[in-house]
Task: inverse folding
């Protein structure tokens, strides 16, 4: 395991201890994924510990940025791309020679933000779209060697990183409102993604049960990406009809206000 977040080192070491007690081998290495030289160096260390054998590469790193095109800058762009995209590409490239030997697999954590534009997160959404294309193109290029490449694209997930308001550029009140609205927008059970759901999907795609699946980006968001901006209004109308659903179309059209057309004058 290569650990990008220093706060996770203790967790990794605890897993290592448990694995040892169960008779399994486990190695944990901390590194800065924003440093290309360090990535290659630490990867080589991990390969040495694994005696050159790799069955699966699982990438679960990344950062969130909540800036629009109007308030971001090139420094933020470069930092996000280095972490979310370049580090992923570098690790995938380094692992290919070893996965050729084992006919193993690669599973990468992406986001549903990479499948549809989300205003207010232009750098993050763009980086996730790039990760998705990395997954699909690599899957095509290495399939001949028996290597599978897949991804998991969750929606807003109830993780510690998501709870750290400072790390995503929101005030405490803004973050609380965002998480509440994000949960409401999820059709299935109206709640945020749980990390365990994402982990189970990653394990399945990385297992022999998914041996004939490659180039797939599995969306795990409770149906959130299926909805439109009008979904909260649909829920209100559905509640008013006590779940009967009668006349929903007409009620919904009457409920939704026509959005204004924006032009250059609106921004002056």
Result:
């Amino acid at each position: 395991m290569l650990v990008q977040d220093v706060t996770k080192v203790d967790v990794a070491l605890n897993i290592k201890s448990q694995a040892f007690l169960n008779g399994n081998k486990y190695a944990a290495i901390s590194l800065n994924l924003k440093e290309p030289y360090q990535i290659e160096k630490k990867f080589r260390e991990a390969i040495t510990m694994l005696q050159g054998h790799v069955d699966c590469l699982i990438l679960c790193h990344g950062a969130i940025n909540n800036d629009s095109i109007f308030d971001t800058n090139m420094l933020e762009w470069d930092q996000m791309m280095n972490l979310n995209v370049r580090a992923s590409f570098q690790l995938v490239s380094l692992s290919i020679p070893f996965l050729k030997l084992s006919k193993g697999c690669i599973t990468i954590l992406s986001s549903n933000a990479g499948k549809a534009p989300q205003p207010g997160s232009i750098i993050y959404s763009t980086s996730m779209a790039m990760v998705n294309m990395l997954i699909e193109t690599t899957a095509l290029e290495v399939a001949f060697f028996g290597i599978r490449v897949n991804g998991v694209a969750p929606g807003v997930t109830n993780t510690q990183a998501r709870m750290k308001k400072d790390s995503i550029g929101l005030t405490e009140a803004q973050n609380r409102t965002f998480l509440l609205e994000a949960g409401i927008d999820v059709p299935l059970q109206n709640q945020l993604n749980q990390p365990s759901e994402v982990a189970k999907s990653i394990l399945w795609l990385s297992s022999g049960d998914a041996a004939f699946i490659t180039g797939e980006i599995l969306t795990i968001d409770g149906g959130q990406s299926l909805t439109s901006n009008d979904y909260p209004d649909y829920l209100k109308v559905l509640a008013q009809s006590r779940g009967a659903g009668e006349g929903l179309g007409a009620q919904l059209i009457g409920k939704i206000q026509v959005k204004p057309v924006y032009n250059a004058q609106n921004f002056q």
